[in-house]
Every structure is written in C-alpha cells, then in structure tokens.
Amino acid sequence: MPQLFPANPSATMVIRHVTPDIVTMSLPFARFGRLQFGGRGTLVKLASGSLAVFSPVGLTSEVRETVESLGGNVKYITAPDIEHHLNLTPWKNTYPQAEILAPEGLYEKRQSNPEFKDTPFKHVFKKEDQLPRSISKEFDAEFESEYVYGHGSRELVFFHKPTRTVIEADLLFNLPAKEQYSRTPEAGTNFLTKLIMPLLSTKPPATWQRRFAWYILSSQDRAAFTESMKRIDQWDFDRLIPCHGDTIETGAKGIFRDVMAWHLEQKNT
C-alpha cells in the first residue's frame, strides 16, 4: 500500500493557531502515494472548555501538548466522512470521555479492520435525521452542521458560529497544499499534482473545480447535494478550513459560491 502520511509526522507537521480557540494541525498527505493533497486536523475550544477535534491527525507528542495547552478536555472526535477516520481509535483510547461523530456507514466499514473494530460511535449522522440535528447543548450553541449525504464520501460540514469558520474535509479543495508541505522539500507540487491542480484549485473562476463538484462529487445524488449546498450557503461564514490545501482565511463565502455556482443556480452552464 502506498504511504499516505510521512513516517515521522512530527518532523513535518505545522501546528498553528488560526484564532485563539482554533488550532490547525497540517502535514503532508499523498493520495495513492503521489497526489500531494495535504492533510489537516482541526481543534476547536468551546466556550465551556471542551475540545472538539475534526479529522484527527496522528497523536504526536506535539499534538498531545497542544491538546493539553487548550485544557485537555477532548469531548468530541469527528470523522467528517467515511475516508477521514484512520486516527479515531487512538484518540478515543487516549481520551475515553470523548464522543465520536461520524456519518452512517463508517462504523460498519471499520468492522473489517481489527485495529478499528468496535470503537464506539456516539453520534451517527443519518439521511433521515430531522433538522436541525442536535449533539449537545454546548456543541449546538457554537456549531451548525450539514450532512451532505449526496456526496460520495458522505460529508459532514461544520460551521463554527463564533469565528464564522467552516470546517470540512472533501467538499472543497484549495490546492496547492503550501502550508501542509512547507516543512518538506517537495512543496506539494510534483508533476502528477500539477496535472490535477486545476480540478482542485479555487483560483477564480474555479471552472474546473466547479465541474469536479458537479460531475464527480455530486454524481451519487445531485439533488440532495444541491440542497445541502443551499443550506451551507445560508451560513454567515468568512473563513474555511479544508482538509486538503491551504486555509482560506477570509472571503471564503465568495469562493464557496464560485465553486458551487451550478448547484446554487440549479443549472449547468
């Protein structure tokens, strides 16, 4: 199997405070061992003092120190889709009080792997859930969520209202992954990555990523995907933290509308 993450993540991970209460943990990640998408986990400290982690990365000593610096009370561990789940079990074992959030189907998928098997899920997002979904009083006070079940990977997207920040996994990409490869000599731009860059770039007018969202990401259930995009469009966000590519520090709402234009307009032009 191709190596997805670096053998020594401590040597290449970039841990950064995006806001006083949001920390990103960025590192190299190569899909199929060659496509340099970059990977990122995000920690959010709630007003209650509880911590929520989204798309958790490996628990290096530096990551543990970061968790402790934020109070250490990891309460929520989120797998934002059926692909971003490899570190759920180590985090749950280390922070047993934490509750796992995940999309339907992921628990069943993990049962074939002895390493992951039987790790308990507390909150499973399902297609038939009533809206708005509720996790807990403290979580609901700060986050809105959208289950994009029309996405092939069953995306969970979160909006942190106090900081106007959207946190997502494979809904919108922002390559090249400059920050995630900033501590490596590769710079996230090998030949194969450059070939697929237009599909995963937000550079205006983002025509190719718009096509990628329309023809690939939403192909499983385009109507449901479109309804999800309309609900996300109602959120008042300015920043977007993707798992793949650089964080969009400001102006993210306009970029989202550009990439998802065909869905928001309900037409393909």
Describe the SSE topology.
Blueprint: E1 14-19, E2 22-27, E3 30-31, E4 35-36, E5 39-45, E6 51-54, H1 61-69, E7 74-78, H2 88-94, E8 99-103, H3 106-110, E9 123-125, H4 137-142, E10 143-148, E11 155-160, E12 165-167, H5 191-196, H6 207-217, H7 222-233, E13 239-241, H8 252-259, H9 261-265
Parallel strand pairs: 6-7, 7-8, 8-9, 12-13
Antiparallel strand pairs: 1-2, 2-5, 3-4, 5-6, 10-11, 11-12
Annotation keywords:
Beta-lactamase-like; DUF4336; 22% strand; 269 residues; 9 helices; RibonucZ/Hydroxyglut_hydro; globular; Metallo-beta-lactamase, Chain A
Model description:
There is one protein chain. The chain is an alpha/beta fold and 269 residues long. It has one domain (9-265): 4-Layer Sandwich (Metallo-beta-lactamase, Chain A), CATH 3.60.15. The protein has nine helices and 13 strands. It has helices at 61-69, 88-94, 106-110, 137-142, 191-196, 207-217, 222-233, 252-259, 261-265, and strands spanning 14-19, 22-27, 30-31, 35-36, 39-45, 51-54, 74-78, 99-103, 123-125, 143-148, 155-160, 165-167, 239-241. The strands form three sheets. The protein has a seven-stranded mixed beta sheet with strand order 1-2-5-6-7-8-9, covered by helices on one side. Strands 10-11-12-13 form a four-stranded mixed beta sheet. The radius of gyration is 17 Å and the shape is globular. The protein starts with 13 loop residues before the first strand and ends with a helix.
